[in-house]
Amino acid sequence: MRQLGYDGASETVDEPATVATVYSMTGFSAATRDLPWGTLALELKSVNHRYLEIQFRTPEPLRLLEPGLRDRISASLKRGKVDCRIEWHRVETNTPASSPNTLALEQLRAASTIVQEVFPDATPLSVGEILQWPGVLRQDPDAEISLEADCQALADSVLQALTETRAREGAKLKDFLLKRVDDMTCLADTLSPLVPALITAFQERLSARLRDALGTYEEERVRQEVILLSARIDIEEEISRLKVHLQEVRHILESGGAIGKRLDFMMQELQREANTLGSKSVSTDVSRVSMDMKVLIEQMREQIQNIE
After folding, report:
1. Is 280 found in the same domain as 231?
2. pLDDT (tens digit, 9 = 90+) per residue, 36-61?
3. Contact indicator for 56, 66 with CB cutoff of 8 Å
4. CA 24 to chain centre
5. Which of 91, 173, 214, 306 has the fewest CB atoms in 10 Å of its CB?
6. What is the pLDDT of residues 206-226, one digit of tens each?
7. 48: exposed, middle or buried (C-beta count within 10 Å: 0-12, 13-18, 19+)?
């Protein structure tokens, strides 16, 4: 709620409701960035996993960027196995990007002199071999800083695209699950009106069988047995718990965020009630509803494995 004032008047206006987002753990995104000294490519791929696991495939010169990239990914994603691939293709330019390291040259000259003394016939190093020696060419620090900044910016762009992909798939999963919740609620609603008639029919059948077995002189015992066994087949409590669990599943889906583990737990609770419903069944209608519910629960459980 917020207050709007216009010409001295105030008016109460409802803020637009924000739609909670459900995220899938499956997604892919990639992008490249052309730089003056090369091309940087970054690829993110995520699949289902119990926790957040990040793996990098990075060229050696860019290994130092991994901690920062890991922090960025962890801030956006909560679950999933994420594969991050970085490729760097340097291009040759006419502008010198590096200068010789004089200290490294002196060390290389001293080492070469010692080798020449021990092996007089050894071929001296050429200029090209000297320049290719590790540590001789000192990289331009400004180029390295720019490369790090470009890599971080590219990672943010790719990560945003990946998050949007996971959100779009998550929205479809949410609709799928809500449809199954509606179907299960309808099934539970069809059972409630049947319970009194089912219990009455069961009591009549049981009373007739007990009278045949015990005789009419055991009427009190027949009545006690009927009451005891009727309580065991009463499914009102299971129907009530099923409806409560379904309301909770709907609430979790509407709340959004990292809800995969909570939904997985709720599937266990729904499965337990559906099993109890089937074990108490004394009619084909209850058995059919129990079986239909188990099918719907299994469908939901399978899709929930994809939710963050």
Report:
1. yes
2. 878 899 999 999 999 999 999 998 88
3. yes
4. 5
5. 91
6. 555 655 665 555 555 545 555
7. middle
